[in-house]
């Protein structure tokens, strides 16, 4: 909002209020359409498109054809996320664990659901190989003598709590996991899977391309959201685990892409 001579013009105030309302709508529904906004606010679609461009430049949304999607906020560190909603994440991990069979090679990247999955795999004690680029997950997996652990190397990117640089990419290109379980910053039917940081997105894309099955665990707040960098399109995802109360209509475009949707058990706590 621009101030002229210490005063805010009516036009600028309306602009600020309109964009604030658009942001509210994005938080509520995950997406907005320019045509509907123009009709609702009584302005032209060009005006709405300018609003969305400004909001996208500020990181408040990501523009798509005909409108915009909710942007993904910067997450808290992995160690903090591991303690948030532990029952819900354990339920998602339990669904994903059903995909793991003895003798498999499984890749786990940095996500709080994968932390829970690593604990579950240690409890099961099956003879599998697990590859990870995340030190905290590797430390958990060290607790099972039956699990062969492969650690992807290189410098740790503190933003994602994992190795995602050039050395990690070289290591990934030598692997062919049976199952790759990725953490996703966002997923949207129009865009696919996205990540907040470029190096992380590139690493995820490479390891996904080397894997027989790509699986995701998506908490409901990530459905319909978009981060800055593309990872893979929906067609590349074989399985998506969702929370027990995920909206059926919201899941429809993902099921239509061919991926298998696995719904976690209800949280009884």
TrEMBL record:
InterPro entries: Carb_Metab_HTH_regulators, DeoR-like_C, DeoR_HTH, NagB/RpiA_transferase-like, Tscrpt_reg_HTH_DeoR_CS, WH-like_DNA-bd_sf, WH_DNA-bd_sf. It comes from the Bacteria. Pfam families: DeoRC, HTH_DeoR. One of its GO terms (molecular function) is DNA-binding transcription factor activity. Keywords: DNA-binding, Repressor, Transcription, Transcription regulation. Residues 15-70 form the HTH deoR-type domain. PANTHER family: GLYCEROL-3-PHOSPHATE REGULON REPRESSOR (PTHR30363:SF4), HTH-TYPE TRANSCRIPTIONAL REGULATOR SRLR-RELATED (PTHR30363). This is DeoR/GlpR transcriptional regulator. It comes from Brucella tritici. The lineage of its organism: Bacteria, Pseudomonadati, Pseudomonadota, Alphaproteobacteria, Hyphomicrobiales.
């Amino acid at each position: 909002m621009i101030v002229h001579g210490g005063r805010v013009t009516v036009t600028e105030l309306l602009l600020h209020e309109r964009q604030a309302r658009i942001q509210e709508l994005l938080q509520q529904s995950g997406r907005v359409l320019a045509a509907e906004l123009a009709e609702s606010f009584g302005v032209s679609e060009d005006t709405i498109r300018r609003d969305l461009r400004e909001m996208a430049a500020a990181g408040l949304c990501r523009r798509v054809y005909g409108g915009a999607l909710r942007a993904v906020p910067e997450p808290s560190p992995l160690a903090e996320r591991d303690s948030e909603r532990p029952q819900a994440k354990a339920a998602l991990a339990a669904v994903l664990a059903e995909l793991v069979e003895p003798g498999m090679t499984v890749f786990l990247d940095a996500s709080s659901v994968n932390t829970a999955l690593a604990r579950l795999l240690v409890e099961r004690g099956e003879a599998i190989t697990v590859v990870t680029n995340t030190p905290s997950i590797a430390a958990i997996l060290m607790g099972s003598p039956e699990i062969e652990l492969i650690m992807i190397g290189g410098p740790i990117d503190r933003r994602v709590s994992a190795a995602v640089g050039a050395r990690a990419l070289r290591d990934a290109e030598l692997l062919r996991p049976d199952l790759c379980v990725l953490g996703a910053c966002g997923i949207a039917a129009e865009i696919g899977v996205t990540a907040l940081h470029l190096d992380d997105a590139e690493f995820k894309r490479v390891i996904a391309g080397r894997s027989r099955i790509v699986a995701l665990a998506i908490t409901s707040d990530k459905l319909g959201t978009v981060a800055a960098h593309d990872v893979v399109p929906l067609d590349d995802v074989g399985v998506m685990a969702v929370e027990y109360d995920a909206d059926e209509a919201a899941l429809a475009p993902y099921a239509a892409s061919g991926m298998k949707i696995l719904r976690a058990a209800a949280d009884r706590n």
